[in-house]
Amino acid sequence: MRRLDLLYKRVIITFIYVFIILGSTLYGQNASKGFSRLNKKEYLKASEYFKEALLADDQDILGNYGMALLYANDQYGKVDYFKSFRYLRTAFRNLMPLSNGSQLTDFNKIVPDIKGTIVKDYERIERELFESVKQSNSISNAEMFINEFSDSRYFHDIVQIRNKLEFDQVSAIDSVSRYNMFIERFPGADQLTDAVKARDKVAYNDLIREIKLENIYDYIKRYPTSEFLPRVFEYRDSLEFIKARTTNTLNSLEYFIYHFPQARQIKKAIDLYVQKYYEKAQEGNTIKDYQDFINMFIATEAGEGALIMRDNIQYKNILKTNTVDAYNLMISWYPNSSRKKELINARDQKAFEDALMANNISSVESFLYNYPASSQFPKALQVRDSLLLIQMQKIVTLEGFYNLTSRYPTLLENQKALEIRDMLALKEAEADDTRDAIERFIALYPDSKLIPVAREKMKLVKH
């Protein structure tokens, strides 16, 4: 029983093998017949033979080559360069690895120099496929080519054709989303720069239909290379300035000045900031408030006003203190003060009063030394000389008088001092008790009130 089963299996296997061999031979003959019909321009019949060959083996070289030639032939009536090139590529891939042998010899009998012929047809049909896709202006055809034939010599040309068709389509719609889609999908397209510019322009037109700070900042973030950015920045600066001016606080104005230094509104913003800061100083109305303002804005018009206000407050405080040191301190700290002249006058008056209160020659002398340009200087001289007269009344010799007046020559302009001098000189002449001494006195002091007394004395003196 087992032997019968084995015998049966062998018969079946042999039958299948023979069928395959015969079938292969049969379909090989079909391909040969197909080329025979093709040469006779019996295209429909040729296609039937080629299809039968491919039915048996879809990799059949002659079957694929024959169908490629049919689909590239205008007279076939079903020209389809895509199908033609697909069939041809299969035939090309399967044929080229074959070396010289019986199979290649059989092929050459059907198609002389089959390798060289397929190479030429490959170049021709590939070129015709490229031209058909180019002339079709069809994105789907271009995409089909790109997806199937990435190793084609025309691949990059078709990519650029596809990109242009896509760009033309996107340009017709002219929307940001479609341009963005193009830019994202085709970063290497020749039209990329144009797409970016067109996208930025559409986005800009959308922006100016509803200009808000939120939309402006979104545009700046999304389109950092836009040629419209200078205009967008102007819109931003204008709205930010309106916002700062409306809020009208030091913080809002300072924010604008710090963040938008190139804005055309910057000068106005600074003026508003200075004015606001000055108002704040006026509200505080203290020396520190005004000094802080002056430190920042001395060169402004308001800076001049702040100087005056600061000096006025300080001047009032100094008047209350009313000391020479306080006046000098303010004069030293604020040499350009509008109150400087008043300060100097008040200081000089206080120094003069202090000297008078001390009621001694050294204090008055100190005043004269320190304040020679003061309006009180002449009066101080008189006071000093009055004190000197009191001291002079204690002098008992003419030499002592001249010693004193040599240090204080203004005493010689004082009538009382001159009277003391004359009295001392006459006293010394009397002491000499000679007529020559008295005559010398009369000759030296001809304007003295004591001249009559001296003449009387002279009568009494012996020769």
Report the CATH architecture of one domain: Alpha Horseshoe
Unreliable segments (pLDDT under 50, ≥5 consecutive)? 6-27
Largest sheet data: none
Instruction: Give the averaged pLDDT, no decimals.
Output: 88
List keywords for this structure.
about 475 residues, mainly alpha, Serine Threonine Protein Phosphatase 5, Tetratricopeptide repeat, about 80% helix, rod-shaped
Tell me what the structure shows:
78% of the residues lie in helices and 0% in strands. The protein contains 24 helices and no strands. With 463 residues, the chain is mostly helical.
Structure in a nutshell:
78% of the residues lie in helices and 0% in strands. It is built from 24 helices and no strands.
Could you outline the blueprint of secondary structure elements for this entry?
Layout: H1 2-39, H2 43-56, H3 61-71, H4 81-95, H5 102-110, H6 114-136, H7 139-148, H8 155-173, H9 176-185, H10 192-209, H11 213-222, H12 229-247, H13 250-259, H14 266-284, H15 287-297, H16 301-321, H17 324-333, H18 340-358, H19 361-370, H20 377-392, H21 398-407, H22 415-432, H23 435-444, H24 451-460
Helix pairs in contact: 1-2, 1-3, 2-3, 3-4, 4-6, 7-8, 9-10, 11-12, 12-13, 13-14, 14-15, 15-16, 17-18, 18-19, 19-20, 22-23, 23-24
